[in-house]
Automatic annotation (TrEMBL):
Example GO molecular function: ATP binding
Keyword Thylakoid in annotation: no
Protein name according to UniProt: UDP-N-acetylmuramyl-tripeptide synthetase
Cell compartment(s), UniProt: Cytoplasm
Length: 532
């Protein structure tokens, strides 16, 4: 994707605009055209922000950045020491550069400028599960409304017909502001974007103000970063403040959502989709929400339902993807677009004419074959796995599930995922995900411990197998399947690389599943009857 047209700005003026007047001793600062925190992404004229990392400091890459054309370095005291006299460009020192780069990138990339004829309406989606799907749904609905759209998320970044694969769910703030500049330049009028908790923790959306921020749910994940669910919630809640968004749309199916709706300091629209789902505190959701899902009916592999307002106004919605949770994602997406001011009759027309919530979301409940129903999904935490596995059982058919757990991430979820798999599948095949630098066998053992304990303690009939490598596990699942069964490969979704001790091995669950189905002589029949 080509960068937007550079717009030179005096670095001293940009710093002053974010409340950092340059003190004496910094020297004459140059004119700059961009900012980045990655030496490998430096374009001539950039400021290189040398940030402290978990194990190394970006100052170590400043030489490389200057060689690539960086005209100034922004860093902290440690970075200054590490640089010594080794860089030939001005160095600006601030106590916490990570907190500065978002607002600074906004200024440098023209986010405050009036010249562009309007910034895109921005939709941000956060929550443990459903961000990618909801972001695609918002995008598809905006397209159905005739808007030109952009999208930023786990799978890809799209700006006006151009798309590139993503490295992170939410890019670092310089890239976010640079993409917004490109979208303004291309006349894109609405963009939807995933906002991960890492993004909020590390300031990746600093300087961004969302027109509408949406919340899906909060369940156990990322506790390696956040420590406790309270902390995890607090980080997510930071998006729903006047500094970061204008309006909030909150699913109140869980207790965290209800708490968020009560505490957000911006106008909130609440959406309720599932009265039976209890929250983290075990309580039952209240009956009242601004928009409530009613009259749910099966529609192909998905569902159709009504979205009813408090005063009885109704919208008819269809969500074509399997999985009852996609009702929540579709309802949230529809209300987010309403919250941006789209009239209800326009929305209804777009829903009826274009069926936007049947859009395929790569690796999310993606149907690879119809018989046996063969699905690739991205569920990689206990809640997503539970909801996914519970959604795919067909009357009289078995569920054959394949998944593992990621290395060097939240270890506490491994046995929980194993137990969920044992409860909701007839055959559970535990295999490898991305082990990163961990021993695959140790990870599998932790998942298996949870599965075996559940089988023993709860008297479950699930057959638990351990098969690796992953391609063999997928093959085994298909070999065991007969018509009527559902094979579900969970955890990696759209991913095409498996990272093993620093080496990326080519692995795409969708490709492996298709090959296994062909090898075992299956061809597509009807998958009618998937329960959700
Ligand atoms: C925990 C985490 O988020 N770490 C991120 C963080 O790493 P870090 O601070 O340790 O940085 P580092 O890689 O050691 O490098 C230090 C500094 O030197 C710079 N550097 C490094 C190498 C180089 O050649 N040149 C260079 O300039 C880096 O840009 C960085 O500023 O800053 C890096 C630079 O942007 C990120 O790449 C890195 O994301 C890592 C790869 C990552 O895996 N992050 C995941 C966990 C993440 O953020 N995931 C969420 C989604 C989670 C979910 O919902 O599932 C996401 O939004 O993607
Ligand atoms: N609303 C939801 N509630 C619970 N689980 C969901 C929901 N939506 C999707 N899922 C499950 O979670 C998986 C990931 O969905 P999706 O990619 O949309 O969420 P995400 O929040 O972007 O996840 P990640 O941050 O891990 O990429 C899906 O493959 C599905 O199994």
């Amino acid at each position: 994707m080509r960068p937007h047209e550079p717009r030179p700005i005096d670095l001293a003026a940009a710093l002053a605009a974010v409340g950092l007047p340059v003190g004496p001793g910094t020297g004459l600062l140059p004119t700059v055209t961009g900012i980045t925190l990655d030496s490998r992404a430096v374009l001539p004229g950039d400021v290189y922000a040398a940030l402290p990392g978990a194990t190394r400091h970006g100052a170590g890459f400043a030489g490389q950045a200057v060689l690539a054309g960086a005209v100034a370095v922004l860093t902290d005291g440690v970075g200054r020491e590490l640089l010594g006299d080794g860089v030939a460009v001005p160095v600006v020192v601030v106590p916490d550069p990570r907190r500065v780069i978002g607002p600074l990138a906004r200024v440098i990339f023209g986010g405050d400028s009036e010249d562009d004829g309007g910034a895109p309406a921005l939709f941000g989606v956060t929550g443990t599960n459903g961000k990618t799907t909801t972001t695609y749904f918002v995008n598809a609905l905006l397209e159905a409304l005739g808007r030109s759209t952009g999208l930023i998320g786990t799978i890809e970044i799209r700006a006006g017909g151009d798309a590139i694969p993503s490295a992170l769910t939410t890019p670092e703030s310089p890239q976010v502001h640079s993409l917004l500049a490109l979208m303004r330049e291309r006349g894109i009028d609405a963009a939807s974007m995933e906002v991960s908790s890492h993004a909020l923790e590390f300031g990746r959306v600093d300087g961004v103000v969302f027109d509408v921020a949406g919340f899906t749910n909060l369940t156990q994940d990322h506790l390696d970063l956040h420590g406790t669910m309270e902390e995890y919630f607090a980080v997510k809640a930071a998006l729903f403040t006047a500094e970061r968004c204008r309006t909030a749309v909150v699913l109140i199916d869980d207790a965290w959502g209800r708490r968020l709706a009560e505490t957000a300091d911006v106008p909130v629209l609440t959406v309720r989709t599932d009265g039976s789902r209890s929250g983290g505190d075990g309580s039952v959701p209240p009956a009242e929400a601004d928009w409530t899902v009613t009259d749910v009916e099966r529609s192909g592999l998905g569902h159709s339902f009504a979205l009813a307002a408090r005063d009885g106004r109704r919208l008819r919605v269809r969500s074509g993807l399997p999985g009852s949770f996609n009702i929540s994602n579709a309802a949230l997406a529809a209300v987010m677009v309403l919250a941006a001011g789209v009239p209800e009759h326009d929305l209804q027309h777009a829903l009826d004419a274009h069926d936007p919530f049947t859009t395929e979301v790569p690796g999310r409940m993606q149907l690879i074959a119809e018989e046996p129903a063969s699905i690739v999904d991205f569920a990689h935490n206990p809640d997503a796995l539970e909801r996914t596995l519970a959604s795919v059982r067909r009357p009289g058919g078995r569920v054959i599930a394949v998944f593992g757990a990621t290395g060097q991430r939240d270890e506490s979820k491994r046995p929980v995922m194993g137990a969920v798999g044992a409860r909701l599948s007839d055959v559970l095949i535990i295999t490898d995900d991305d082990p990163h630098d961990e021993d695959e066998a140790v990870i599998r053992r932790a998942v298996r411990a949870g599965a075996d304990a559940a089988v023993t303690e709860e008297g479950l009939a699930c057959e638990v197998l351990e098969v690796f490598p992953r391609a063999d596990a997928i093959d085994r699942a298909v070999a065991l399947a007969t018509a009527g069964d559902t094979v579900i490969i969970a955890g990696r979704g759209h991913e095409v690389w498996q990272e093993v001790k620093g080496i990326n091995l080519s692995l795409d669950d969708r490709v492996e599943l298709r090959s296994a189905l062909t090898r075992h002589g299956f061809s597509g029949l009807s998958a009618a009857g998937i329960e959700s």
